[in-house]
Amino acid sequence: MNNRTNNGLLWAAIGLGAVAAVSLLMNRKEKYSFRGKVVLITGGSRGLGLVMARLLAKGGAKLAICARDIDELERARLELADYGGEVLAIPCDVTYHSQVSQMVNDIRNHYGHLDVLINNAGVIQVGPMEAMTLQEYEEAMKTHFWAPLYTMLSVIPHMREKGEGRIVNISSVGGKVSLPHLVPYSASKFALVGLSEGMHAELKKDGIVVTTVCPGLTRTGSPRNVIVKGQHEKEYAWFDVVDSLPTNSMSAENTAAQILQACKRGDAELITTLSGKFISAFHGLFPGSTADLFALINRILPEAGETGSTGRKKGFESQSSAAPSILTVLSDKAAEKNNEMGS
């Protein structure tokens, strides 16, 4: 190795060390507690949102949760109220700006202020691109990009007035690496990552910390409620099995705890699961190789089918002998626990 290469590596190491030191100094913060804080969780009636709400309620937070399904929302409210804290449950479709604005006004009128926003509401469409229509792409973008933008624009002025605030945007490892048979989902989660990272950079000076969260596979029980297209039973089976295996996924409780700790610390980003961290890092270094790898994986996933059907079914409508099965036990138990079973 010649001197020029040695010098280059030395300066690179010095540069990285300097960046790390500056980052450490900038991120040194006082302890943050959720006790007494008003926290809004979108999509807080089931799955990961409900699990985070449980932890926050136990920690003494004042909760506001929203969702579209009124019955599901009421079940979640009754459960969370058992922890002894305040819970405000508001029916809201966060893809509509007017409903979001009204919801935030209702929360401020009820509690007087709002300290933490967790953008968690999500939708997953599973199937080959041939089976996807503009509806799926528009639906994903409305839920994962426009809805978080609406909520952030609604709370930022109030947080600026206070001189502080926390915002958590739940994206996905699928927002770092585009996944086959999840293209609308991945594309919209990529958009959320860009939005969230930009907001972090611009709002920190105002005392508002934005954390971008990219969970790996998480056992929330959500496969029952995904939208399935193409060969419905086969698509649901592979997704449900992959989501459930402990070698690939993390429990919702562990994920929720990590997210809340990242919010407390004011981290810019959190990626969960070892596989999620690995594939994100690998993609950063070798984006072409990652794309080729997923092209190979795509070859073993179900094809669109002879008719190229674009019909939509929910996960629970696409069950077969393969799912639920012994391979999906953990996901099935999570669905029962986390209000994912439906009315």
Automatic annotation (TrEMBL):
Specify the species: Rhodocytophaga rosea
Enumerate the InterPro entries for this protein: KR_dom, NAD(P)-bd_dom_sf, Sc_DH/Rdtase_CS, SDR_fam
Q: What are its GO cellular component terms?
A: membrane
Q: Which PROSITE patterns match?
A: ADH_SHORT (PS00061)
Q: Which family does it belong to?
A: Belongs to the short-chain dehydrogenases/reductases (SDR) family.
Q: Which GO terms describe its molecular function?
A: oxidoreductase activity
Question: What protein name does the entry list?
Answer: SDR family oxidoreductase
Ketoreductase domain mapped to chain residues: 37-216
User: Keywords assigned by UniProt?
Assistant: Membrane, Oxidoreductase, Transmembrane, Transmembrane helix
Q: Which residue ranges does UniProt annotate as crossing the membrane?
A: 6-26
The parts of the chain that form a coiled coil are none
Query: One Pfam annotation, family name?
Result: adh_short
UniProt key word Iron-sulfur: no
